[in-house]
Amino acid sequence: MDRLTLGKMQNPVRGILHGSAAVASLIGLIVLTIRTSSDAIRMWSMVIFGFSLVALYTTSSLYHSYPWREKWERRIQRVDHSMILVLVAGSWTPIAMNVLDGGWRIFTMSVVWGLALIGVVQKILFPSVRQWFTVALATTMGWFAVVPLPQIIQRMSRGAIILLLVGGVLYTIGMVIYATRWPKLFPRVFSSHEVFHVLVVAGSAVHFALVYNYVVPY
To answer: What are the structural domains, with CATH classification, of the chain?
Structure first.
């Protein structure tokens, strides 16, 4: 069944959703940078987080909107999937750099960015590896939170912990839907892949609220 298009836009729901998220992320990046400009480490951790959001949603919007030729479609798809891993590591960065102490900070940053690097290299050098590898890697990176969780609980408020977990749950449900391709809903317009994208945007919004309300003023 052919999907509904909008002019040359191949997947209008995905393209518009993530295009809007890219604009919102850019605004969020600017706001976070301004609010933390007096502290270099804090500011750069926010820049990394904001940039990872902008990079993911810009890449995803372009990938799902433009009618790429087959060779370029495969290339932009690899970039799109790589940005998922960059976003997970980028989302960890403000927490690791501003909430965790020296040892935990170094360990957490090394693990999440190390795993992200492995995933990106795999996409570049071994693109034929099944997609479940990226899904499993991103999920593992996200739920790495259980490792430094005792210190996170000790140092952050209940509201912050709730936002951290809710965002993680939204991302995880999205990954499950992406992997299982269920529910089908309306295959031509809004199917499982659109649900996945909505949940990713929702997870990003929740984690942005966490960073803005609890990590920036920490």
So the answer is: 12-215 (1.20.1070)
